[in-house]
């Protein structure tokens, strides 16, 4: 049986750049992009063309930022998708390669961020599980100083993006991927958890704020209803564009009302976006 031809639309580097400009992406701005390649349609050149289109729309003075998470660098005792036998845990902990921003692949964030991570000139932040990669003149200012015990809080690229007036582009991705909402979790009552992971000196445990994307779609729907969010289409994908600072401020007020969480110390990571997420 022959394979049916793609139904389109046909998307190219130039049409992507044009759609992004039409949506409101500005030359010279800093843009945090959460993306889905499959949502865009039939892209000639795949993720490379998407990155090129984003860079074209931002221009030489703009900065592109993407999440490059590697949440599988976590405790195998917490893995559930899939789980591994308990008799393997100690060996996995002892032999798991530690995070290296140059070679550790991203996981669970899609092929577009992984393409940015490996792009010539890209810089990547230092957190072993929730790093960001950036391209452009503000890349170092965004990714430098990502504290190893601060996944998505005040000492992460998110706080720098907020302070620098960056905007978020949801490119075929939903609000469940919106990392800016996580920054708000560090500013409201949230549990503290103990996280295990590999390090250059062996297995280590650190205390961290518990993060979870539970109810982020509902949060995003209310945010979009109450605040100015630019909506449109890029290729075949639904796209949304809004300031990081607006998303964080709204989530700071919304989360305590709609998703209150007791402050306590727990052994589970509370959701890290990894294969080990409970």
Give a concise summary.
This protein is an alpha/beta fold and 278 residues long. Helix content is 29%, strand content 20%. The protein starts with 9 loop residues before the first strand and ends in a 12-residue tail after the last strand.
Contiguous uncertain segments of 5+ residues? 264-278
Query: How much strand content do the residues show?
Result: 15-25%
Instruction: Give the structural class.
Output: alpha/beta
The largest β sheet comes out as: 7 strands, mixed
Average pLDDT metric: 93
Strand segment count: 12
Helical segment count? 9
State the separation between the terminal residues, measured CA to CA.
41 Å
In helices, the fraction of residues equals: 25-40%
**Helix and strand string, N-terminal first?**
EHEEHEHHEEHHEHEEHEEHE
Provide the spatial order of strands within the biggest beta sheet. 5-6-4-2-7-11-10
Structural commentary:
The structure is a single chain. The chain is α/β, with parallel strands linked by helices. Helix 1 crosses helix 2 and helix 2 packs across helix 4. The protein contains nine helices and twelve strands.
Descriptive labels:
globular; 7-stranded mixed beta sheet; disordered C terminus; alpha/beta; 278 residues
